[in-house]
Each structure stands twice: as C-alpha cells, then as structure tokens.
Amino acid sequence: MARVVVNVMPKKEILDPQGQAVVRALGRIGISGVEDVRQGKRFELEVGEGVSREDLEKIASDLLANTVIEDYDVVVEGADVEAK
C-alpha cells in the first residue's frame, strides 16, 4: 500500500481570484508583506501494489486536474509504485 499525493495548482498565466481574495483579506486583518497567494487542491490516494506510475499520471491528468488551466504533480510517499 502506498500513499500518493496529487497537488493541483492553477497555471502561472491563469488568474487566481481565490488567491487574490486571500491577499486582500490579509491586508484587512493587518498582515502585510505577503505579495501573492495561489490556491490549489491536494488529493491523497491510498493505492495498492497493482497501481502503476502511468495509472497515477492518468488519474491526475484525466480526472483530478483540468490540464488546460492547471498543472499537477504526483508524489508517491509510500512503497514503490511500479512502472508498467
């Protein structure tokens, strides 16, 4: 069993209104010095031995991220995931 984390973030060229709202809110609560905030998503998957790295990439690109406007990375935290 392995734990896999998929982080999904808006591409740099895509406007991030949620991140901008956080920056504005920081000013309202008296915190300065934070230049930019980008908000993304984190998915944690528990996968068995039969799941390959290729499977994980497919899950991330086809299901978890909208690759037109988002980038993603796949991090395997547990046992090795086979490359089928």
From TrEMBL:
<dbReference type="InterPro" id="IPR036604">
    <property type="entry name" value="PurS-like_sf"/>
</dbReference>
<comment type="function">
    <text>Part of the phosphoribosylformylglycinamidine synthase complex involved in the purines biosynthetic pathway. Catalyzes the ATP-dependent conversion of formylglycinamide ribonucleotide (FGAR) and glutamine to yield formylglycinamidine ribonucleotide (FGAM) and glutamate. The FGAM synthase complex is composed of three subunits. PurQ produces an ammonia molecule by converting glutamine to glutamate. PurL transfers the ammonia molecule to FGAR to form FGAM in an ATP-dependent manner.</text>
</comment>
<keyword id="KW-0658">Purine biosynthesis</keyword>
<comment type="similarity">
    <text>Belongs to the PurS family.</text>
</comment>
<dbReference type="Pfam" id="PF02700">
    <property type="entry name" value="PurS"/>
</dbReference>
<protein>
    <recommendedName>
        <fullName>Phosphoribosylformylglycinamidine synthase subunit PurS</fullName>
        <ecNumber>6.3.5.3</ecNumber>
    </recommendedName>
</protein>
<dbReference type="GO" id="GO:0004642">
    <property type="term" value="F:phosphoribosylformylglycinamidine synthase activity"/>
</dbReference>
<keyword id="KW-0547">Nucleotide-binding</keyword>
<dbReference type="GO" id="GO:0006189">
    <property type="term" value="P:'de novo' IMP biosynthetic process"/>
</dbReference>
<dbReference type="GO" id="GO:0005737">
    <property type="term" value="C:cytoplasm"/>
</dbReference>
<comment type="pathway">
    <text>Purine metabolism; IMP biosynthesis via de novo pathway; 5-amino-1-(5-phospho-D-ribosyl)imidazole from N(2)-formyl-N(1)-(5-phospho-D-ribosyl)glycinamide: step 1/2.</text>
</comment>
<keyword id="KW-0436">Ligase</keyword>
<keyword id="KW-0963">Cytoplasm</keyword>
<keyword id="KW-0067">ATP-binding</keyword>
<dbReference type="GO" id="GO:0005524">
    <property type="term" value="F:ATP binding"/>
</dbReference>
<dbReference type="InterPro" id="IPR003850">
    <property type="entry name" value="PurS"/>
</dbReference>
<comment type="subunit">
    <text>Part of the FGAM synthase complex composed of 1 PurL, 1 PurQ and 2 PurS subunits.</text>
</comment>
